[in-house]
Amino acid sequence: MATTMGSREQTPDLPGAAIPFADSFQGLLGLEVEEVGDELATGRVSVREELKGARGAVQGGVYAAIAEAVTSLATAVAVSPREMIAIGMANDTNVRAQVTEGVLKVTARRRHHSDESWLWDAEVRDQRGRVCAVSTMTIAVRPRDRGR
């Protein structure tokens, strides 16, 4: 089942979240979640100066962070009704092209899932449709700590 969001202000806070989405690292990135489902997740980030490295292009870690943010969120939304949480476990991101302006669009597709982890492939494209980064994400699924 997919949920369409539209903007980061509309992104629902997860049950048990310690801070609101808008105040989280994902909010700092400026991530706008467009769709979250158990097989597909999409989002976008507007390029701005704070996301660039010294040479003026988007810093490589931003691509990794975007991929992890949408795949962790999609996994979390899917597993939270079972009192489980999602935690980024492995992130393999390859930057393919430099971007200096515009919008980055991420599309993540789930490749596999089990009771303990979900595997996702993500592509980040620029506004011209050029593939800028590709990622393979493994998201761990663990019981929610009730002691928090």
Structure description:
By secondary structure, the chain is α+β, with helices and mostly antiparallel strands. The chain has one domain (2-143): Hotdog Thioesterase (Thiol Ester Dehydrase, Chain A, Roll), CATH 3.10.129. The chain is 17% helix and 41% strand. The protein contains two helices and seven strands; from the N terminus they run βαββαββββ. It has a seven-stranded antiparallel β-sheet, covered by helices on one side. A hairpin with a 3-residue loop joins strand 5 and strand 6 (117-125). The longest helix has 20 residues, at 60-79. It is globular, with a radius of gyration of 15 Å. The protein starts with a strand and ends in a 5-residue tail after the last strand.
